[in-house]
Inverse folding.
């Protein structure tokens, strides 16, 4: 019993020593690189989702692994660290790469067609549909029958009834 | 008659739009830097790494800034043309060695010829970002006041040189 107990103590001490030595390796780390600061990373990601990678034009900078996107992400991280606002950072990129870098283009004279084009097309479509339907209704308007034609129709209907009764 | 003409008209309009679209290059993104002052820089030189070149050294003359790298394949295409242009003495060309290694860059110049009055080194691409560089090679024409007048995205070609760049240089050099 006593022997067993001392074994338990030994193991416990071993584990204790193990765990108290291990963290030393993590203490030795240098200052955390900017890329690993979760707050900066979060803001950077939120920003880059709406930015276009100019090299691989159908990808956002957040998704792209292109060298260009790496550089822009690094630039944005550094600017966030320098306490720049999101607006300032986006403006920095627009100044250098133009509105093309934005997935949400700003509203201005050159982009009016882009913003309202779909609505205009929809209005044109709706308008022509209404005109078409109205015209069609005019075409199938009731044509008044003469007395003779009515009688004729009635006779035909009666004939049909008789046929069924037989 | 109208019933057949309308679809035909719509088809023709669409076809024309698509045809024009085919001739456009989505890589040619208009630079917002045209007619704006060239971003300032102070960078180490490639050949004499202890010397620094500043963008302001070139005020008062029309010059070209060519962004190049030894890893850039398209740079090799335009290079003979740049060497020729440099030899003609029409305009000084400065090279921005973009995200490259010094030794490979120097070897590259030795092999293909060195058209640059001075090459400067942008190892981490920071100056490149300021100039809106996204596809090497890119070439800027900068006037006497230090304002960017033209940006060529992709390799300089005989066509672009004769039709756009050379006439522009002449015009800019004649300005006060």
């Amino acid at each position: 019993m006593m022997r067993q107990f001392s074994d338990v103590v030994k193991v416990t001490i071993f584990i204790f020593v193990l765990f108290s030595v291990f963290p030393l390796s993590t203490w030795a780390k240098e200052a955390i690189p900017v890329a690993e600061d979760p707050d900066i990373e979060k803001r950077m990601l939120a920003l880059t989702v709406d930015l276009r990678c100019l090299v691989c034009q159908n990808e956002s900078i957040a998704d792209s692994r292109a060298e260009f996107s790496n550089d822009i992400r690094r630039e944005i991280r550094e600017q966030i660290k320098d306490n720049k606002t999101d607006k300032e950072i986006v403006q920095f990129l627009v100044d250098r790469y133009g509105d093309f870098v934005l997935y949400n283009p700003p509203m201005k004279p050159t982009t009016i067609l882009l913003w309202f084009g779909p609505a205009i097309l929809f209005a044109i479509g709706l308008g022509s549909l209404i005109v078409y339907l109205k015209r069609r209704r005019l075409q199938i308007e009731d044509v008044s029958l003469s007395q003779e034609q009515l009688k004729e129709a009635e006779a035909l209907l009666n004939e049909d009834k008789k046929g069924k009764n037989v | 008659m109208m019933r057949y003409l309308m679809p035909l008209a719509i088809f023709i309009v669409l076809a024309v739009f698509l045809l024009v679209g085919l001739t456009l290059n989505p890589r040619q993104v208009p630079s917002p830097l045209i007619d704006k002052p060239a971003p300032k820089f102070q960078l180490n030189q490639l050949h004499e790494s202890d010397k620094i070149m500043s963008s302001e050294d070139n005020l008062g003359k029309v010059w070209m800034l060519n962004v190049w790298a030894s890893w850039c394949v398209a740079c090799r295409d335009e290079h003979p043309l740049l060497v020729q242009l440099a030899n003609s003495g029409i305009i000084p060309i400065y090279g921005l060695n973009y995200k490259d290694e010094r030794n490979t860059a120097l070897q590259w110049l030795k092999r293909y010829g060195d058209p640059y009055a001075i090459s400067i080194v942008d190892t981490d691409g920071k100056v490149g970002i300021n100039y809106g560089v996204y596809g090497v090679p890119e070439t800027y024409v900068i006037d006497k006041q230090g304002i960017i007048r033209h940006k060529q995205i992709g390799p300089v070609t005989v066509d672009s040189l004769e039709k756009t760049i050379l006439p522009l240089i002449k015009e800019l050099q004649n300005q006060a």
Q: What stands out?
A: The first strand of chain B starts at residue 42 and ends at 44. DSSP finds five helices and seven strands in chain B. Chain B has a mean pLDDT of 92.
